[in-house]
Design goal:
By secondary structure, this protein is mainly α. The chain has helices spanning 9-16, 19-33, 38-63, 68-88. Helix 1 (9-16) packs across helix 4 and helix 2 packs parallel to helix 4 (68-88).
């Protein structure tokens, strides 16, 4: 069985300067989802974090190694894709995750 290490996504986002962008994306996602319970809102944000973590792992696996610059680029690209998807999703549709 392959062991996995949890990424400290908050530290990664802070180190790359992308924390505020991720938080802004989360706020936009919550607005797009419409009225959600506290539990559903938290689930949406945690699902986003899991998706970003999976993306970073996949990119690192593809490349073999990663610098902080690489992680910043990968994070920005992922956030950009998510923002584009939000623009295509009608407000309140809740089609996230």
């Amino acid at each position: 069985m392959e062991s996995t290490v949890r990424l400290d996504l908050t530290r990664i986002l802070e180190a790359t300067g992308e924390l505020q962008h991720f938080l802004d994306l989360g706020a936009a996602s919550l607005r797009a989802a419409g009225s959600l319970s506290q539990e559903a809102s938290e689930a949406l944000i945690f699902a986003m974090a899991d998706e970003l973590e999976d993306h970073l792992r996949a990119m690192r696996a593809r490349q073999g190694t990663a610098t902080i610059h690489d992680i910043r680029i990968w994070t920005r690209a992922w956030i950009g894709e998510q923002e584009a998807a939000l623009l295509e999703t009608p407000p309140g549709s809740g089609d996230r995750g």
